[in-house]
């Protein structure tokens, strides 16, 4: 999608701090980290949010969670939080599906 920030990052048109990449997804450090470790994992295909996940594209989401398990394991992160905001009221600011992975500090519940 031509005017999507994360599509541009995936295409290399906007620089990012890459954590991981494969055929289906891309992971990079958040530009405004909210924890000592804070990276985003996004599908390479443009999917606007969890609201647009279907039976057809859901395997990409499963793959992303397998990648999150692999990356956090490699990083030695035993405790972390995975967050996806859906819609502006929930805090979504980039409308390309992404999963925040946050770790390295105490976290509160419920989230704000
Ligand atoms: P959300 O608000 O849940 O849609 O998350 C979007 C995230 O993208 C925020 O945590 C931003 O800090 C992050 N972000 C925005 N622009 C960039 C960028 N150029 N590189 C890395 N992360 C970014
Ligand atoms: Zn996109």
Secondary structure tally, helices: 2
Q: What's the number of extended β-strand segments? A: 5
Overall SS class: alpha+beta
- Distance from first to last alpha carbon: 31 Å
β-strand amount: 15-25%
The small molecules bound here are: adenosine monophosphate, zinc ion
Largest β-sheet summary: 5 strands, antiparallel
What is the CA-atom radius of gyration, in angstroms? 14 Å
State the share of residues found in helices, binned by percent. Answer: 10-25%
Mean pLDDT rating: 97
Main-sheet strand order equals: 1-2-3-5-4
How would you describe the shape?
Answer: globular
Contiguous uncertain segments of 5+ residues: none
Pattern of helices and strands: HEEEHEE
Identify the notable features of this structure and list them briefly.
binds adenosine monophosphate; binds zinc ion; alpha+beta; 21% helix; 2 helices
Structure, explained:
- The structure is a single chain.
- The radius of gyration is 14 Å and the shape is globular.
- The chain has a five-stranded antiparallel sheet with strand order 1-2-3-5-4, with helices on one face.
- About 20% of the residues are buried.
- The model has no long low-confidence stretch (mean pLDDT about 95).
- Helix content is about 20%, strand content about 20%.
- The chain has two helices and five strands.
- A hairpin with a 7-residue loop joins strand 2 and strand 3.
- With about 110 residues, it is α+β, with helices and mostly antiparallel strands.
- Bound molecules: adenosine monophosphate and zinc ion.
- Zinc ion binds next to helix 1.
